[in-house]
């Protein structure tokens, strides 16, 4: 999911968004298992029927994974890309679930079946700041923050999420990360690019994807990510997962 416009290298309302599922499965180690890991971690920290905020609804695979395993969970997915919202709605309906869509950043977006009220999954076309509901019992944010520059945008996103969580509620963050000046970054990046090749991405596609990364990814070290989480009002943050340059952290809204 990207929070930026179509002029950016990662255009989620254009060709990149349309190909996102294939790209994610190709370049993210353990892509599908990351959602199951999140489910396993959240199951141990929430009660029955929790309200869960999914930031970066994307293609809807995270929402369907959660809802299939936990039908009582009340899910709200938010994404600023109209194309991503439509792909997510289609996937949710294919899974036999009902998806309600509510307008956010763009007035007049057509509401889907259920319009959120009574729907199995509520989708919001917009940013986290467009989600009016507060007091969520948990939240996730996967593959979003690395698209944002560290000029206050990363911190603002995390603060917006924290404000919508109940005190003590768990939060899972999964991101591409790294210290570009660190001793292992170049080795890990080279291994990551070879991973794309192993998964069948051709030479031209790899070069194009590398150009997008060089222009559109805003790296942050793990130390900086922990600092940003603390600054946004999260506590007890620790990394539960790492695969090459991807990492997953769990924390909770400060009490």
What's the layout of helices and strands?
Elements: H1 15-18, H2 20-27, H3 31-43, E1 51-55, H4 61-69, E2 74-79, H5 82-94, E3 99-103, E4 121-125, E5 138-142, H6 153-163, E6 170-176, H7 185-198, H8 203-216, H9 222-232, E7 234-243, E8 246-253
Parallel strand pairs: 1-2, 1-5, 2-4, 3-4, 5-6
Antiparallel strand pairs: 6-8, 7-8
Helix pairs in contact: 3-4, 6-9
Key structural traits:
single chain, 255 residues, alpha/beta, Rossmann fold, 8 strands, 38% helix, 20% strand, disordered N terminus
Overall SS class: alpha/beta
Distance between the termini: 29 Å
* Envelope shape: globular
Proportion of residues in extended strands: 15-25%
Low-confidence stretches: 1-6, 105-118
| Helix and strand run | HHHEHEHEEEHEHHHEE
What's the name of the CATH homologous superfamily?
Vaccinia Virus protein VP39
Number of DSSP strand runs: 8
CATH class: Alpha Beta
- CATH fold title: Rossmann fold
Largest sheet: 8 strands, mixed
Instruction: Give the number of domains.
Output: 1
């Amino acid at each position: 999911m990207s929070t930026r416009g179509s002029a950016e290298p990662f255009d989620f309302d254009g060709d990149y968004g349309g190909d996102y599922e294939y790209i994610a499965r190709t370049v993210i180690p353990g892509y599908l298992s990351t959602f199951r890991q999140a489910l396993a971690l959240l199951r141990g920290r929430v009660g029955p029927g929790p309200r869960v905020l999914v930031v970066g609804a994307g293609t809807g695979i995270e929402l369907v994974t959660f809802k299939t395993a936990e039908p009582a969970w009340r899910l709200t997915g938010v994404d600023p890309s109209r194309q991503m919202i439509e792909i997510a709605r289609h996937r949710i309906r294919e899974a036999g679930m009902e998806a309600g869509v509510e307008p956010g950043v763009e007035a007049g977006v057509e509401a889907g079946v259920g319009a959120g009220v009574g729907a199995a999954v509520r989708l919001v076309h917009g940013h986290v700041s467009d989600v009016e509901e507060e007091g969520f019992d948990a939240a996730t944010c996967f593959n979003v923050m690395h698209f944002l520059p560290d000029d206050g945008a990363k911190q603002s996103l995390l603060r917006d999420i924290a404000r919508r969580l109940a005190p003590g509620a768990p939060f899972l963050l999964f991101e591409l990360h790294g210290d570009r000046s660190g001793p292992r970054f170049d080795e890990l990046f080279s291994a990551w690019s070879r991973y794309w090749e192993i998964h069948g991405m051709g030479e031209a596609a790899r070069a194009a994807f590398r150009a997008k990364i060089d222009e559109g990814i805003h790296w942050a070290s793990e130390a900086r990510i922990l600092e940003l989480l603390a600054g946004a009002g999260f506590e007890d943050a620790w990394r539960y997962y790492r695969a090459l340059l991807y990492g997953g952290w769990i924390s909770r809204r400060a009490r």
